[in-house]
Structures are given as structure tokens and as C-alpha cells.
């Protein structure tokens, strides 16, 4: 085998692995927590039945705005759990609905919050932009507010 063939072969393996990792990271994890459509989440947040938390990044909030009635807490924050505790007045039994762009991060975060002791976690799997679960918040013509960050 020539050096060129070896390098091309290794490059192909690298691309395949990279593509596989990207695919894996773009798939929501399976969970048994309740799910809401964006319309249901909006109605519940408006009625103060849930705390709706947008876990996306400030760049995403800037692009699309925030779901009306949502609390913006970037899931990458070191103090995410502290910020969520403040949003729920420290009540681990308070219903918390998570929304992200396409339902991948919110699905993953349901497990993390359960491990942190939260007992009523709800996923909004359509997200802001839509997913296999449905068209999403924006396509559903639900209200958004401008992020003031």
C-alpha cells in the first residue's frame, strides 16, 4: 500500500467517524418524560402552570427571539442549576418545560435535570425550529419576544 493510499484511507475513516458523531449528537435521546407541543407549552406557560425554559444560546435567542413566557437560561452556563432553581423558587417538584431549537438538547437535558432531583420535567420536542415531532414554535405562529441581552 502506498503512502497516498494509506493517507486517503485514514482520511475516509476520519470523515466517516466525524459524520457518525455528528449524526449521533443530532439525535434526541429517548426518555419517558411528558412532552408538550409548542401550542400546549405556550398555553401552560401563559396560565402559569409550567416554567418554560429556553435552553438555547444567546446567539440563537438573538436570531429568533424567545418563546413568549419563557425564561432564557443557556444550558451551557456553569450555574445553570442555580439559575433554574431561582426560576422555580427552589421547588424541585415545579413543572419545568424545556425547549431548544429542534428537541435534541431539551431531550438530553430532561435526563440531566432528573439526575439533579427535578421531578416534573417536560420536553417540547418540536423546539423552536421544528423537528421530526412537528413544525415547531415559529412555524406554529406562536408569539416570540425579542431577547434583551
UniProtKB/TrEMBL annotation:
InterPro entries associated with the record: Rhodanese-like_dom (IPR001763), Rhodanese-like_dom_sf (IPR036873)
Domain of life from the UniProt record: Bacteria
SMART domains named in the record: RHOD (SM00450)
Record Pfam families: Rhodanese (PF00581)
Boundaries of every Rhodanese domain copy: 46-146
Membrane spanning residue stretches: none
Protein's UniProt name: Rhodanese domain-containing protein
Organism annotation: Pseudophaeobacter arcticus
Amino acid at each position: 500500500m502506498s503512502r497516498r493510499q494509506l493517507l486517503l484511507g485514514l482520511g475516509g475513516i476520519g470523515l466517516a467517524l466525524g459524520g457518525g458523531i455528528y449524526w449521533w449528537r443530532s439525535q434526541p435521546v429517548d426518555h419517558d418524560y411528558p412532552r408538550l407541543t409548542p401550542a400546549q407549552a405556550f398555553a401552560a406557560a401563559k396560565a402559569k402552570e409550567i416554567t418554560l425554559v429556553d435552553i438555547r444560546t444567546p446567539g440563537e435567542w438573538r436570531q429568533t427571539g424567545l418563546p413568549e413566557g419563557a425564561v432564557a437560561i443557556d444550558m451551557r452556563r456553569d450555574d445553570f442549576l442555580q439559575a433554574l432553581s431561582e426560576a422555580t423558587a427552589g421547588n424541585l417538584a415545579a413543572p419545568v418545560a424545556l425547549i431548544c431549537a429542534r428537541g435534541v438538547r431539551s431531550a438530553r437535558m430532561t435526563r440531566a435535570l432528573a439526575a439533579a432531583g427535578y421531578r416534573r420535567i417536560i420536553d417540547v420536542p418540536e423546539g423552536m425550529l421544528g423537528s421530526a415531532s412537528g413544525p415547531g414554535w415559529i412555524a406554529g405562529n406562536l408569539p416570540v419576544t425579542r431577547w434583551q441581552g
